[in-house]
Specification:
With 284 residues, the chain is an all-alpha fold. Helix 5 (60-76) packs antiparallel against helix 6, helix 8 (120-136) packs parallel to helix 10 and helix 11 (180-196) packs antiparallel against helix 12. The chain is built from 16 helices and no strands.
């Protein structure tokens, strides 16, 4: 059962991480109850998956211990290829918990491992963490540079998820800085990648960021349409991260409130998820 779950891990990560974690935990509980011995490599992958699910509900404090234990099990199983990427995941957890220095040190270590093994996907993820660290300390130029080094390396296979989220995250940092053209370019590239893997977790953030860009450009109709589309996603899926996207971007909408915004908002609520994505990717 755990092996079957791991084969569908990307589905749960991009659709319902908390639901996936609940299923995985039931399987792990069954193992504990029967006192069966679990292959260390399989157990490590399960813990890694549980850590990722915690990350996606912003419980990095719970995800990090899962990664640390998984790292120990991978070492016990002599699966050295997982040490670098797990070190990068621990770095990301440290960053999200506010420990910038530890995050940079671990991500730099992971980057060196990835380059030594000539693994572009792992290199891209380590660069992603370093990019987010740069943005966090306010260094927009280094953040942009690192994101654009990272995204091409991770835009393959399951790592397309990282490529898309990194570009959308970059846009979210650039919007408050007023770099709207670059933010929109990155947002569109990231959204295209997320849409290609049917990621329902991060797509709402892209739509919310697009609404913020439209609002800051004074386009009330477009901002309202995108905002209504976000509200429509919440209606379809109450667990959607659209609520988080709305909370993050609502402050940018203050100057476009009014009849034109409300007209667009009503139209946006009628859009399907696919139509909302298409509209977000269209030219303003």
């Amino acid at each position: 059962g755990i092996r079957l779950f791991l084969l569908t891990e990307m589905y749960w990560i991009t659709t319902d991480p908390d639901g996936g974690r609940a299923r995985l935990e039931r399987l792990l509980a069954q193992v504990a109850e029967t006192r069966e011995s679990l292959d260390p490599g399989v157990h490590a992958r399960a813990l890694r998956a549980r850590g990722a699910a915690f990350d996606l509900i912003n419980r990095y404090d719970l995800g990090e211990p899962e990664y640390v234990r998984a790292l120990e099990l991978f070492r016990a199983a002599n699966e050295e290829e997982y040490i670098g990427p797990l070190t990068a995941r621990i770095a990301n957890s440290a960053l999200r918990q506010g420990d910038l220095a530890r995050a940079v040190a671990l991500a730099t270590e992971a980057l060196q491992i990835a380059r030594g093994k000539r693994n572009p996907g792992d290199e891209g993820f380590a660069l992603f963490v370093l990019a987010m660290a740069a943005f966090t300390r306010g260094d927009l130029e280094q953040g942009k540079q690192l994101v654009h080094e990272s995204a091409p390396l991770t835009n393959r296979g399951a790592s397309t998820f990282i490529s898309g989220t990194s570009l959308v995250a970059a846009a979210e940092f650039l919007i408050p800085a007023g770099q709207l053209d670059q933010a929109e370019t990155d947002l569109h590239a990231g959204l295209e990648r997320l849409a290609s893997i049917s990621d329902r977790i991060n797509i709402p953030y892209a739509i919310g960021a697009a609404a913020a860009i439209a609002a800051l450009r004074g386009d009330a109709d477009r901002a309202g349409t995108l905002w209504g589309a976000l509200e429509g996603i919440v209606d379809l899926d109450p667990k959607s991260t659209a609520r988080g996207a709305m909370s993050d971007n609502k402050p940018f909408l203050q100057d476009v409130q009014g009849a034109e915004f409300e007209k667009g908002r009503a139209r946006g609520r009628t859009l399907s998820r696919e139509q909302a994505i298409e509209y977000t990717l269209s030219s303003a």
